[in-house]
Amino acid sequence: MAAIVLQCSMCGATQSAELFFGCGECGSLLHLVSPPNRPVPNPSRPGIWSGLGTLGVDDLTPVSLDEGRTPLLCAVDGREAHYIKFEGSNPTGSWKDRFHAVNATMARQLGYRGLSVVSTGNSALAAAAYANRSRLQLRVRLATRAPKTIVDAIRDFGFEVEFEDGEALDLRRDLIENGLFPATMSLPHDGVANPFGLEGYKTIAYEIFEQLGRVPDWVAVPVGCGDGLFGIAKGFDELMRWGVVTSVPRMLGVQSDQAAPLVAALAGGRTTTTRTEVGHTIALSIAVDSVGNHAIAAVRQTGGSAVAVSDSQISDALAVLRREGIAAEPSSAAAWAGVSSALSQSIISATDTVVAVVTSNAFRWAS
Fold first, then answer.
1. For 232, phi and psi rounded to 5 degrees?
2. How far lies 256's CA from each of 84, 279, 314, 338, in Å?
3. What's the pTM value of the predicted model, to 2 decimals?
């Protein structure tokens, strides 16, 4: 197996993949070094793996439920230049399937016994499906506010559910003592980062370019800790590095106004965030108190922006999407609410081509 090299999202230092909780130089989040050339598409590989390549592993055996290749839906609410990338059509109903297809693949490839995940819901459900698919164990710690439908589905997959909001020490202990791969989102203030799952998100960028036939002006993404936004930005950056495109879209990070650390960091000119208070919101799966500096950097590097939206704006977006036949989870509808907000603030021009990533469907979430 070829050596896997990780790179810091801030200072650029590189290190091996044996210890991947953070950069040894500055402590920032790590990601895989991009290959110098675009991987040759391989239609014989399932799901996202047909265009993702081998991630530096010579003998890679992908784990897949045929995730990805989700629809790009046009002319939402009469806006001809605006599109929805609907991730709710993935096997378990969210973009987390891309994330965990890579996590399960790399965990098995690197010799881990199982996965360890802390989640508000969608990620845990996807982890359960991919753990079974890859014959791996799974430890699930689920936020107490997670919907019963998701809890029941995880149990139906055969896994016990622990209810807590998660501690970094548990993830470290799972890795060191129990041989469990930390298949979770980046938790910046706890020093927890997963550089592998990010690779799943970047396939969204590849698909948007292929489906649209060009690079959009903006891509709007709902943001919790920021892994998805960073991953999509990385995908477009790779396409430009490989000479496939000549520009990248601006990234629009969208958060609830009850949990908006990315918005606050950008407004304050900061490269990192401090913990912010989280209020009550219907956007449960993005209601987190901090965001990774990799997401802040991605917005800045693309000339993008971030907006905070209210529950009322999210509810309006849900109604618009339903009229178009799109059943979205409230947190994922925040992307469309953010586009509307950015238009009203003249952040986005009415003539700009915009893709809003609606990250999950509504069927396991009460709105």
1. -65, -45
2. 19, 9, 9, 9
3. 0.94
